[in-house]
């Protein structure tokens, strides 16, 4: 199996100049992957709670799946400054192997919870799994019955106006469920009107609560970051010509079935 240095010709005598960054969010592992997709990974990485990049270069690997990481680029460390309770780095994305960003998949079992490693210590453990033909992107809409996405991915889809998702979510009416992965409680809502699911879910992507009283109370107390715990799925779809009153009746039906008034976030 190919190793990292087989596709990235870094001189062995220079390895000590590199910090290996395993980019992962403890609560939402794929957050940095979505940042890469949106083109904002550089600024995401530059925000650090400690001085984690005290070497000349940063080789970034972004969480992709269990023991798999996707190449996020090599950055030159230029400066760092303290800003209130954190550090902000000034880095420059190098052209070196820029063509592999979002394409090179590396197998590497993360050693414990460490995210900032000295490259020379681990470089021989970084094994190439695959080189994608095209850079990573959000997958095509999977079908209404297969929708199961977390808040951060929804936010990315909405911000990028992903065509297959926008077309599908604007084309039908129906009933959806939002589950809080932190405690198992859920909210059931309905989507109808112009652009239906798309316009309704865009509100959640904007503020985390979509106007729901209970969810708003949570976001007000814990902050928008807490919305990363919310997971979106579709319970039922109907044609766009279905009367809105019928959709509201179906929403009520699912509330009764799943007891979301008693055990969830629905008040009525």
Q: How would you describe this structure to a colleague?
A:
There is one protein chain. This protein is an alpha+beta fold and 268 residues long. The protein folds into two domains: 4-131, no CATH class; 144-263, GIY-YIG endonuclease (3-Layer(aba) Sandwich), CATH 3.40.1440. It contains ten helices and twelve strands. The strands form two sheets. Strands 1, 2, 3, 4, 5, 6, 7 and 8 form an eight-stranded mixed sheet that branches. It has a four-stranded antiparallel sheet with strand order 9-12-10-11, with helices on both faces. The protein is elongated, with a radius of gyration of 22 Å. The termini are far apart. The mean pLDDT is 94.
Question: How big is the Rg?
Answer: 22 Å
- Decide which structural class fits the backbone: alpha+beta
Inertia-based shape: elongated
Strand portion, in percent?
25-35%
Question: Please, how many helices?
Answer: 10
Number of domains: 2
Provide the helix percentage: 25-40%
N- and C-termini, Cα separation: 58 Å
Low-confidence parts = none
Order of helices and strands: HEHHEEEEEEHEEHHEEHHEHH
Q: Count the E strands.
A: 12
Overall mean pLDDT stands at 94
Oligomer: single chain
Largest sheet, described in full? 8 strands, mixed
């Amino acid at each position: 199996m190919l190793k990292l240095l087989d596709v990235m010709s870094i001189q062995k005598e220079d390895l000590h100049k590199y910090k290996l960054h395993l980019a992962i969010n403890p609560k939402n592992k794929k957050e940095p992957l979505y940042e890469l997709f949106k083109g904002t990974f550089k600024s995401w990485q530059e925000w650090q709670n400690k001085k984690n990049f005290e070497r000349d270069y940063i080789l970034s690997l972004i969480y992709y799946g269990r023991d798999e990481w996707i190449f996020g680029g090599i950055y030159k460390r230029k400066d760092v400054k303290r800003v209130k309770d954190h550090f902000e780095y000034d880095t420059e994305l190098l052209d070196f192997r820029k063509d592999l960003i979002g394409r090179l998949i590396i197998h590497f079992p993360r050693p414990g919870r460490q995210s900032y490693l000295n490259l020379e210590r681990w470089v021989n453990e970084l094994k190439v799994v695959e080189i994608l033909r095209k850079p990573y992107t959000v997958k095509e809409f999977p079908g209404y019955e297969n929708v199961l996405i977390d808040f951060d991915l929804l936010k990315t889809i909405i911000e990028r106006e992903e065509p297959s998702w926008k077309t599908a979510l604007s084309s039908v009416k129906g009933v959806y469920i939002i589950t809080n992965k932190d405690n198992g409680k859920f909210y059931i809502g309905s989507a109808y009107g112009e652009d239906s699911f798309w316009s309704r879910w865009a509100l959640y992507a904007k503020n985390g609560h979509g106007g729901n009283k209970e969810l708003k109370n949570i976001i007000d107390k814990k902050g928008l970051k807490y919305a990363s715990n919310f997971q979106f799925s579709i319970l039922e779809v109907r044609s766009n010509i279905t009367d809105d009153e019928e959709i509201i009746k179906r929403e009520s039906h699912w509330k009764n079935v799943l007891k979301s008034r008693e055990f969830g976030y629905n008040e009525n």
